[in-house]
Amino acid sequence: MSAPKGLTRLAFGGDYNPEQWPEEVWQEDVRLMREAGVTMVSVGIFSWALLEPEPGSYDFDWLDRLLDLLHENGVRADLATPTVAPPAWFYRAHPDALPVTADGVRHAFGSRGAICHSSPAYRRAAAAITEQLARRYADHPALALWHVHNEYGVPVSACYCANCAAHFRRWLRATHGSLDAVNEAWGTAFWGQRYGDFEEIEPPRTTPTVRNPAQLLDYARFADATMLENFRMERDILHRLAPGIPVTTNFMTALTQGDSVDYWAWGREVDLVTNDHYLITDGRRTEVNLAMAADLTRSVAGGAPWLLLEHSTSGVNWQPRNPAKEPGQMARNSLAHVARGSDGAMFFQWRQSRRGAEKFHSAMVPHAGTDSRVWREVVQLGADLEALAPVRGTRTVADAAVLWDWASWWAQRLEWRPTEDHDARERADSFYKSLYDRHLTVDFAHPAADLSGYPLVVVPALYLMTEAAGRNLRSYVENGGTLVVSYFSGIVDEHDAVHPGPYPGALRDVLGLTVEEFSPLLSSERVRITGPGGAELSADVWTEFVVERGAEAVWTYADGPAAGRPAVTRHRLGQGTAWYVSTRLGARELDLILAAAGEDAGIAPRTGIPYGVEVVSREGDTGSYLFAINHTADDAKVALGAPGTELLTGERATGHLAVPAGAVRVVHLD
Ligand code: GLA
Ligand code: ZN
Q1: Ligand 1 atom closest to Cα of 46?
Q2: 561: which of 368, 369, 378, 519 fits an S-S bond (Cβ 3.0–4.6 Å)?
Q3: Beta bridge pairs of residue 536
Q4: 167 C-alpha to ligand 2 centroid (Å)
Q5: How far apart are CA 619 and CA 107, in angstroms?
Q6: Looking at ligand 1, which residue's alpha carbon is closest to its atom 11?
Q7: Is 326 a catalytic residue?
Q8: Rounded Cα gap, residues 580 and 513, in angstroms
Q9: How far is the C-alpha of 69 from the C-alpha of 86, rounded, in Å?
């Protein structure tokens, strides 16, 4: 991973859309940027219509003036290619470049992100504007980073037009080799769906009843691959014409809207992983989802530092209810991202818009102006990030791994399953929350990745899993690892075909059991399970008939359809242990299982940290840093392994670190 060129501190700033303002305001903007300690801004993301007002005729004067002004004020530029927002003239000339829904509705111009990634006209136009920008600004002294497009995968993740149909057929030929292979992979013997010619194949448009699941899965892969083709096209132009400037595109790793992109693959294609994250304010503990997103982002960056390119200073405007952040919450959010590997904290956006769809979205310079809480907190955050400059380039230290695979998400969205109450994402969130509350820092890992560095690996409902992944987990356990697996994992292969033999095909060996039948519960039903010392827990959604084949029952169903059968099992295999949880336990109930598995893994409980205080470490050439973020309303104390200097207050810290209610402390350990 590369860092933004010329940036010597942590990145601090936001999306800057000066085209929405008269140029007098730009002068005030840069003055305020200096006041707040802004180091970098993202510009030009939606500027295509201004940069190319007519086909082939360009106006770069305003962007020249803007980049010069930023440079004079010591602000680096993350310069975008504006290819997420083609101008009106483009669609007038190429109406077939507007994307089409699965129902056959063609989208119209007048918003943003109306992209069919297969459109030859779009590809030509995107390449042309990218070349123009690269040629003009390759040597501009403000240029630090290229920002390609914006959030691939939203708002349109797949298009179903005629161009896409033709492109899909080409992709199928290249991926499967032959029509026979497609028929086999899609199981077209079922419901008489056999194809006799590639030309008969269409995108999975709306059908009378359930569509072919393997076709849907391949279409998700195709849509992702098609977006990646366009990213690579732009990236390669930028590399060729502006060598030495890193290229990124902003990911949305942990939002369900971002689920159309396989970030494992994309993480290898960018020079710097960047991410956008917004709190989902639906009453849950938002800091847990934030931590998860940050951990996932770091993981797709291979553990290297990454960059938070967008989050919000306060409320957003696109959720049903958009509360303002509490005092101090913005800093906790920003610094939690930094703790988990981001080399900075950037926002959408610098100055709150007066017009357009996002005028009620918070910004660094709010409608209220600088005599406001948000502005004062922004200025304080700038100072805090300046004090944290030494953490730049260090790496976050992880304690355990959670397996994650976008292909499995896509497969779990398919219809006609044992129960609609099973939500794979909810399982991932609950297992993560349980690990978070044990104060364990998590890396996410692909199921086929090398897991040998982790004492504990958790698999929350990974329905789609290849045989190779199953073998990987087996050797991980045989070599001493501790594995915890949720129900409905390892069931199908990469084409959504059930693995031969009893469930869970890819995991029978390592778990030492088979599952004879699933028996999901009705929506109001709960079951009890009993375990060590007569302990009792309550579970819902899922039960199944587990048969021990080497594993021992640790918890047993006390009632319900599987009464008397194993509910949670443990299998000693080689040097390691594999746990299996066959029902849905909440995050708090899972804690008991993870505590026992943690003991198998030799992970000592983190006793010196109170509930609700997030403690994460970064280590590297400049030393070891302990971040402590107090999400509670009470002052807290965190046990320190070594004395050090607190970077935000400059105070010495020994023994116990005091972290006031709602505050963040970062200790540079001696
Ligand atoms: C996304 C986009 C931004 C803006 C924000 C608002 O992250 O990239 O342009 O719309 O959402 O939250
Ligand atoms: Zn299309």
Answers
A1: 9
A2: 519
A3: 530
A4: 9
A5: 48
A6: 348
A7: no
A8: 9
A9: 26
Rounded to whole angstroms, the maximal C-alpha distance in the chain is: 78
Of all protein residues, the one whose alpha carbon is nearest to atom 7 of ligand 1 is 276
Find all residues with CB under 8 Å of 507, minimum gap 6, and list them: 465, 470, 473, 485, 489, 490
Q: Please give the DSSP secondary-structure letter assigned to residue 318.
A: S
CATH 2.60.40.1180 domain extents, the chain: 613-669
Q: Whose C-alpha lies nearest to ligand 1, atom 6?
A: 348
Smallest CA-to-CA distance from 531 within 462, 454, 474, 583 is with: 583
- Judged on CB neighbours under 10 Å (0-12, 13-18, 19+), 177 is exposed
User: Going by CATH, does the domain composed of 400-601 fall within 3.40.50.880?
Assistant: yes
Bridging pattern class, strands 544-548 and 513-518: antiparallel
Q: Give the pLDDT of residue 258.
A: 54
User: Cα–Cα distance between 189 and 239 in angstroms, integer?
Assistant: 47
Q: Within the chain, which residue ranges are assigned CATH 3.20.20.80?
A: 11-159+245-392
Is 151 one of the catalytic residues?
Answer: yes
Q: Where are the alpha helices (DSSP H) in 246-365?
A: 263-267, 286-300, 329-339
- For 613-669, CATH number out of 2.60.40.1180, 3.30.1050.10, 2.40.10.220, 1.10.8.60 equals 2.60.40.1180
Marked catalytic residue, from 52, 151, 614, 646: 151
Please tell me the distance from the alpha carbon of residue 630 to that of residue 610, in angstroms, as a whole number.
9
Contact between 199 and 172 (Cβ < 8 Å)? no
Instruction: Report pLDDT for 256.
Output: 62
Low-confidence ranges of the chain (pLDDT < 70): 255-258
Can you give the pLDDT at residue 588? 84
Per DSSP, the residues of 488-503 read S-S-B-TTSPBPSSSB
Looking at the whole model, is its pTM more than 0.90? yes
Which mutation among 112, 152, 276 tests ligand 1's pocket best, with the greatest number of atoms within 8 A of CB?
276
Assigned token pair, 226: 């098609």
Does the beta carbon of 347 sit less than 6 angstroms from any atom of ligand 1?
no
| The domain made up of 11-159+245-392 is a member of CATH 3.20.20.80 | yes
Ligand 1 closest atom vs CA 318: 12
What DSSP assignment string belongs to 351-389? B--SSSTTTTS--SB-TT-SSSHHHHHHHHHHHHHHHTG
Work out which ligand 1 atom sits closest to the CA atom of 276. Answer: 7
